[in-house]
Amino acid sequence: MTWTGDAPxxxxxxxxxxxxxxxxxAVPMAALVFGGLAVMLALRPIEAARHGQRxxxxxxxxxxxxxxxxxxxxxxxxxxxSPIRGAGALVSNxxxxxxxxxxxxxxxxxxVSKSEVARWPGIGWLARATGTVFVTRDRRQAARDVGLLxxxxxxxxxxxxxxxxxxxxxxxxxxxxxxxFAPLIAEGLRVQPVTLSYRPPRGADPRTYxxxxxxxxxxxxxxxxxxxxxxxxxxxxxxxxxxxxDLDRKTLASNLHNQVKSAL
Length: 264
Prior knowledge:
Elements: H1 16-51, H2 58-73, E1 77-80, E2 88-92, H3 98-106, E3 110-114, H4 123-129, E4 133-135, H5 142-154, E5 158-161, H6 182-187, E6 190-199, H7 217-226, E7 232-237, E8 241-242, H8 249-262
Parallel strand pairs: 1-7, 2-5, 2-6, 3-4, 3-5
Antiparallel strand pairs: 6-7, 6-8
């Protein structure tokens, strides 16, 4: 599923001054991201030998890298409320690749992503290195997907879902798909809805930060790096909800959708 919207995405021409701005931001960000990745890959074998599949050390590196990257980009991050810790799930609207930095900066989490992302150049490699759980969302593989999620929750990890199944222009919240709520209900875990709200700089297209349809990652990344001034990003952590086995997953998906939408 890919959301295309009713209007074409905004386009930005990159000139000489933009190129200088891109380099000024991209070089330190790349050094931070890949430097952090190198440290993580060096620590991971030791971490695995001592803690198995648990990751008590390396997620803190990811969090530090993501917080630093947003600062280097010049995108202020504001938070309302606090994220849960331990076994449970955050469910959020999905606007952009920037969401990964924003949510990681808030706590030690593990993303749940569609299996296609694992094959994406660059992004897929980083996702695998940081422990992302890849699910097929194929009904024939439902038992396998649920088993993967159950294993991570048993380890006490906080999972992050984008229940819309795709990203949008950031001006709306698409309907939540209920499939992956089943293991959370079965385990009786906590679920916390999160709203990501991007405010563009004054005079810019309100959809500036959105990444959707057939937009390629490279041009969107360059356009984001080239912006003379950024707007802001607000993460609203709504109150967590304790799930019980008698809940209907479709009703739960609808209720969580309404909560996320309320703070957009």
